[in-house]
Amino acid sequence: MNTEFGENRGTYGPGEVPPEYEQSAVAEEFTTTRQRLVEGVLGDRMALFGAVVILLFILTAAFAPYIAPYGEEQTFGFMKEPLSSSQGDFDDDGELEQAFHPLGTDSFGHDILTRLIYGAQVSLLVALATLAVAFTFGTAIGILAGYHGGWVDSLLMRYVDFQWAFPELILGVAIIALSGGLGVVNVVIAIGIAYIDDFARLIRGEVLSIREEEYIMAAQTVGMSDVRIMTKEILPNAVAPLIVQATLMLPLAILAEAGLSFLGLGVRPTTPTWGLLLSDGRQFISEAWWISVMPGLAIMLTVLAFNMFGDGLRDAFDIDEGEVEAR
Amino acid sequence: MRRYVLKRVAHAVFIMWLVATTVFFGLRAIPGGPVSAMLGQESTPEAAQALRQQLGLNDPWYVQYSDWMVDLATFDFGQSLTTSQPVAELVMQAAPRTASIGAVAVVVGLGVAVPAGIVSATRKRESVDYLATVAAFLGLSMPAFFVGILLALVFGVWLDLLPVFGYTPLAEGVAPWLESILLPGVAVGLPYGAVVMRMMRSSLLEVLDEPYMKTALAKGVGSRVRLYKHALQNALIPVVTVAGIQLALVLVGSVTVELVFGIQGLGRLLVDSMLDRNYPVTQVVILLVSAVLVFTNLAVDLAYTAIDPRIRYGGESA
């Protein structure tokens, strides 16, 4: 075979391969998906940063009552600057104490750091619940449409196209108005529904190519039910883009929740959320800038982390940028 | 080509009809209609009945629906339920404000994003590229209203350079108008620009990798011509799509940013009317917003043919 390499004739004996072709003879070492992901994330400085911040965010949310320096509703001096302290009797023992506020206090006298830590809980909760709604319905619609084709596909995808024409926040505002009330559940439903279309479009595209695979035909031949094929055969094979889409949707959900709260259409006014805190501080921007800026920075840092992690994950899974939609 | 355009326009009109119908039924499905909202605490069954009669809410749904369609076709949008002002007047007042913010946002967004994307792609892995990438990430991660608050704080409160509240119509001079919408425009334009910049960068990088770029190099085509004539023309196609679709981002950003800067634009009108259950206003604003989005998408699709002569629709010659 190597005799075809004119120049190398004689240099390399029978069975020998010229050096420039040696590389290709070595099979790439097998790496599991998990190895590939871990290496991809660790090797990408931005993704690593994202992963660390996300971990901190989740821990903060999970252990909020233990981390927060003060109680959720405890009040101190109004509009204290960052790094200042207020003096007073805060634990009812008849003595004066110093209460240190690393990020200042808001217009009600709440410690901003405490409110932000509790706000992380709401943000994480809303983001995950929203994801669950969008994922469940979007994936169901996408799989049904892609697997059955025909009129089911036309009908479901017409709906998805229709929804796709609307910006998520506008849709969210409309659904909040329709459901007629504030509250975490309504926010989750509104944002969740607004992101169904992204999942549906993505999964349908995946299903269209998976449907033609031989193992699907095999499954059909042995008489597996459609539901079983969809959940046991198709879904696991479409999981990579779904994970990436989910990672990129979480920050959008956090932004949407903040946006709705900012408009006064989100959770109830006393709930500590970043969007609401930011919105409360808006009117005091000239006297106490930190009330708005601190929660804004919290939103920014979290969303940034999810975006960077999601990008790294997308590269590690080697998914085309056009396939999953960021924003 | 003409048949294609006609087909697309017909499709756009169909979508608009669908939106109008959905909005009509959706808003009427809300529990607690405008009547209870308008009468408030003093609502009695008789008063509510009289008001429903007056507003035409007692008619069967098909009468209301056909009235609504006729009104739409004749551009008669009715009156606001809360202030009795004609809806058309309210919308005409608000629309120029949102349009001004949107225009500044698009100009700023595209003006910065496209060159930044080109520089970033041609100098991949240089410090300029890292700077632009990080800036785009930050832009993606900040909600427009937070950018707005930061800008208001820095340029309005600390530097005292620009007004941070209210809107000055264009009729009162170009400079005051621009001053009043510059900050909101930039706030809305930053996230928009970030999306466009990322698309520009990745699209151009992909094209620069194509074999025909090597061919051009081998032929001895100069680097400028190679970049602007060979690469950019192809790389711009997905950018145009994204820039068009993401105009939605500008509209959404405008809703929240208008609140920051106290500008009574379409966003404020929409949110306020929804909270007041002010059907006539909500309907028209949603229709207007979706019309803008639907027809922007149409324009983007049609613009492809101009940018990319290879695209011929439906097998017909243009």
UniProtKB/TrEMBL annotation, chain B:
Membrane topology, record value: Multi-pass membrane protein
Entry GO terms, CC: plasma membrane
Membrane-crossing residue ranges in chain numbering: 12-30, 99-118, 130-157, 177-195, 235-261, 281-304
Residue span, ABC transmembrane type-1 domain: 95-304
Coiled coil: none
Domain of life: Archaea
Record Pfam families: BPD_transp_1, BPD_transp_1_N
Alphabetized InterPro entries for the sequence: BPD_transp_1_N (IPR045621), MetI-like (IPR000515), MetI-like_sf (IPR035906)
PROSITE patterns cross-referenced by the UniProt entry: ABC_TM1 (PS50928)
Alphabetic keyword roster: Cell membrane, Membrane, Transmembrane, Transmembrane helix, Transport
Subcellular location as annotated: Cell membrane
Family: Belongs to the binding-protein-dependent transport system permease family.
Protein name: ABC transporter permease
Species: Haloferax chudinovii
